[in-house]
User: What shape does this take?
Amino acid sequence: MEFLATGQEMTLMDKLGILTDAAKYDVACTSSGVERQGNGRTMGNCVASGICHSFSSDGRCISLLKILMTNECIYDCKYCLNRCSNDVPRATFTPEEICTLTMEFYRRNYIEGLFLSSGILQSPTFTMEMIYRTIWLLRNKYRFNGYIHVKAIPGADAELVRRIGFLVDRMSVNLELPTAEGLKALAPNKHRKNILTPMRQIQNGIHANKEELVVYRNAPKFVAGGQSTQMIIGATNESDYQILNVAEGLYRKFELKRVFYSAFVKVNEDKALPSLPGGPPLLREHRLYQADWLLRFYGFKAEELLDEKRPFFNVMLDPKEDWAVRHLEQFPVEINRASYETLLRVPGVGVKSAMRIVAARRNTNLTFADLKKIGVVLKRAVFFVTCNGRMMYPVKLEEDYIVRNLTNTKERIQFGSDGMTYRQMSLFDTGSFLREPSQAERVTAVMGQL
Amino acid sequence: MWVYQCEDSLEGIFTGIYNAYEEKREPEDTMLSLEQELYLFADYQTVKPDGEKAVKVMRTIKRRFGEEDYMRICLTLSAPAPEKAQAVYRTVALGLSQKGTVFGHLFDNLANDYVHLAFSLARGAGNENCHLRGFVRFQELEGGVLYSKIAPKNNILTFLMPHFADRFPMENFMIYDEGRSLFGVHPAGHQWYLLGGSEVPEEAMQLKLSDNEQQYQELFHYFCHKIAIKERENYMLQRNMLPLRFREYMVEFN
Assistant: This one.
């Protein structure tokens, strides 16, 4: 077969280069979620919080050996570098090569484990079988006890998904685009149903496994680290409100551990893709992650952060500050009396600070100096809290006044190493800066009528 | 005021705490010091580290405050700050004087200056420990032994070794703390132990790498280079997450 012949000529280094380069847009690479002690005989253990082994030059954490099994692909998704209509060098790892690389890197403490995805070779089931063979070898012959994260290929046989689930710590299926229309436009070979079916299967498998574990403590674990998924932001024109609703639905209906957002990076020239003159939408991705944290840890709901009339995030204020400024009737909050849930909603108070405040105020009444010691960001919180009935500075609980102060004292947001900053906005900007100018607007700009 | 001069070690400081309690001193009027500083109107006493007394203090702390708080106290004492002894003494004294359940809540009262100081020293040491668990890099030597060098600000080798001993039970590995001349040694299948640098002969320090070590270092270097997305380049973020002082011993930055 053709791909085997090229496999003989390429060195391991070449293959690693091609297949790492192909896998780098998959951001779902964490080593967290599983606590597993070593078994005293073979190599490997897992730490619940995950361990970051290094950081790449784009600032992201390198924690797992993130590779594709092969970058051959029969699909033609428009946003993907490895689509079958692109002429890029193709390579495929053998299962032994992957296992050896994983074990040798792990011994030297370069990585926490393996992250294996793949292009589609021949068919989804065929590809998934190759992956299964590799993981089975890694766990049973090489006896690797560290972290393994595998991507399930949509459309593969359910039995394969089930068997692999007992060997790995986390399994995920990429949603790719937030809506079915977006998926049809940019990835015509992938169908929403094919993506949601394995997600449901994994969810049900985890449930069934939890009940088995209650009965028999040493039963084999199925996907102990839970599921995650990934969406591309900025390739299609969904609003932030739509994306956040999709994420909230996923957390509720599929009980995912994490949803990842990947800013769209333009690697192909294609008329279906946006041109993005300002580079990848990094600020938008950042705001989405902030909102995602609010949903998961701060008790917010998607409809509190955004709605139909304001479907995009505020550029100057983060989602929590934005919510606080729009709901000034709930402030100021008295630090020594408020409940934990109320404290969480104050800008400048995070989960750790809120827990420490609740613990410390059992012993003494807290003052602003104590809050600073605890780690509350007073620059933001002063407008919203009182200690023993008094505010730190006289503050008018008025939207204009607070927004002006919050955005003045804030450091400039820097995204990208060119130090690009944002100009001062008025309160009437809707924040939808990513809308492309229409043809009529372009014409009037050229003619000098704008 | 009564000042106890302790040696900078776990045994020394615990013995100091034992002595302060044995002689029934008032915590507000007592100080545990690591330095030779002189105070006006103070009485001095040098504390000789005593293994038995240290073990008694350790048992009391574990019984009254729990394993987790005991670990935090050990982390505080691994920091290089001279005020750590006094901070730990006053924190422990505060905890022991409270009648109610203070089990697991020793560091809750962050409004107290000494508790806060002990807490932030422990936090700094704990963070460095977590960083190093990821940033330690082993090199395979000729005999198949894995060898690594680190240079931490805090004395956390004792916290690193159990993690790697659990992870690589059948490997021979060594971690060398350059700043303190301390070796952590783990023979395959056995208990790990510490070795002082002065006890190691000179010729053992000449180390030769195994044959394919160079290949794996190059592979990993190439991997880290290829995995970055150029359009998202952000060296400042990388430096925030991975401070420059760790990079000297990391193979992908050399």
